[in-house]
Structure prediction request, 408 residues.
Amino acid sequence: MKIACVGGGPAGLYFSILMKRQDPSHEITVYERNPAGSTYGWGVTYWAGLLDKLRAGDPESADAIDAASVTWTDGMAIVRDERTVHRGDAGFGIGRRRMLALLAERARALGVRVEFEHGITGPDAPELADADLVVAADGVNSALREAYAGHFGAEIATGRNHYIWLGTTKVFDSFSFAFKETEHGWIWCYAYGFSGEQSTCVVECSPETWTGLGLDRMGEADSLNLLEKLFHDLLDGQQLIGRAQDDDAAQWLNFRTLTTRTWHRGNLVLMGDAAHTTHYSIGAGTTLALEDALALAAALRGAGGNGVPDLDAALTRYGRRRRAELLSAQSAARYSARWYENLPRYMRLPPGQMFALLGQRHSPLLPHIPPQLYYRIDRAADGLEPLRRLKRWLGPRLARTLHARSRG
Prediction:
């Protein structure tokens, strides 16, 4: 097959690796509009289960990613000025730039053409004319998807809160949170290491806090100075690092959750953020994109470019499978985003209890039960199997009911 992959993010590069491993005769080109080493974001997170899947797909790139990652097990939160720690499962962080470099190097070693500074602006681009398969891995603003917007049925829901993605010279050895109350409301951040030199720090707040603190009017330098003062105890005096040039406006965003009705049209197929996004607070974006690549490569195993019905059936299987697999992650992301949008509801709890409910924010039951009562039920359920069974039974049913109502 001749394959054109538009977008050189983790999904596009890893998919090209998988397809070359399946059949070295595939002619694969990855087109990335940005220069090599230029990427948005600092570090990405993932968990051990992803490494197992990556090793099954390509042990060499999985080992390289593993070796370049840092790990943590604890979660730490500063609530007002009080610290609390929870034990948890091992998590991993890696610099996004480092991950992309490793995947690009591996792809090239297998014979994939990786062309940086080569943007594709639409499906009629001459580079795509004779491709048997075109993979749209060009992000949430996908030009290929938008060319057939009616067919793909993309829907975008914009979150209420404002957030900014920053780096910091503070190296965290745990996944860390800080919640600070100001006269204009709460502002908080999540931070995690991704190398021995830097960490990611995501700051979030409500629109009222954002405007009340003047963050809507500040340039980046002033914004970082204010945030460093607010989170001084978390950062231990280390600096925050932004992305703007000189004193341009700080790049605050509202998260956009993307869903699509169908994932392919003819020989054009969506992957990663071009097909779906999930709120950053569950730390699953890169994992889900790489899982898309694994699923698409598996669906295409044995599907030849000469038989359009075979290719169409493979792409249909891929889309159906991934839409079903994404339901739990999308549900968790919705509830996680809403938990933060309703943060004041939980901040009257003692810090340890609030942090415990932070870990339960994916639950569809939590928004409908008073936080103190939910905490007590959750603690009781740890020791009573009938309560655990009731919680496991009731949660998914409530989630399906509420999801159906929201779409009705």
